[in-house]
What does this fold into?
Amino acid sequence: MNGFEYAAWDEELLKALQGMADLMKLYNYLMTRLGADPEQVLKMMKDLQAQGYLPPEMDLEAFQKLLEEKGLVSATPEGPRLTPKGERRLREAAFEEIFSKLRKAGTGDHRASRGSSEGDEVLPEKRRFEFGDDVRLIDFPGSLFNAVGRSGDFEMDLAEEDLEVYETDRATGCATVLLIDISHSMILYGEDRITPAKQVALAFAHLILTRYPKDDLSVVLFGDEATEVAVKDIPYIQVGPFHTNTQQGLRLAREILLKKRQVNRQIFMITDGKPSLITEPDGTLYKNSVGLDPRIVGKTLDEAAFCRRKNVTITTFMVTEDPYLQQFVERLTEINQGRAFFASLDDLGEFMMKSFIHGRKTR
It folds into this structure.
């Protein structure tokens, strides 16, 4: 017989579950901050408990066991390691954290199903019909012409292979390179800018992978040099003793985007704004950390102009309040005809999510 079984309210169980939820939130934050090293994170949590920052009744051994049972962490001879499932969970947690703020701000969750909606812009480009496409997007004259060409007669014997549909903005998709500054200035003077940047990158990756499957996302890090990394490697990103080679970061991002099939191509750059190094044509590095070197600035702005000529839009998220550096970002934005947001570390995620979602609606 189906039904509910009632039992006495277990207050201790409720507290234990709440404690685990709080621990998971702390664990996710520390994993993002400490390069996704579970062994280091669990050690820090034990140190925090020993210093009185975590209640003594929180069972960290049970918490570690729970992580392993859920498949988020695996035990290895070298110590606990993050699993692919654990990497996905970090992305989900970052997304949930940022999107909860968006919902409180009134943005809402604008999830869309496949096919056309009233807000989609129909484009002149066409492609073969695929199962699930909106029949309202079928180009019937073009499809009939395909049938005639295939059969050689005018019997109008349409087959699925003859059907063509018009592209929409959603169907066309967007190729995005997430460009992240990993120079030393991102942790300079005791201000941790890289952890919020990573949290946003994790959330942004989750948004695109789960809600915009026709989109393409690449991740590029730039310090002394620019390097492409896989989305799964975002949790492991760490700042190094690097200068800021914005020029090479933009160049690599542009080269990646020009290989993509999507019509819309864009760069989302998270930086503290000051370029201090460039790569010369012969491969040598020219650097100057004092002020804004005109030679470095000029080459970096040239790269923004190259992006513009290739219809690659740069949206810059500036995580510093220095007016001197903001002037440089404003100049870069003007040359590229892109956008710039001067965001606090707390607001970075909201700015970035709103910009991406709004941009897809209005493009």
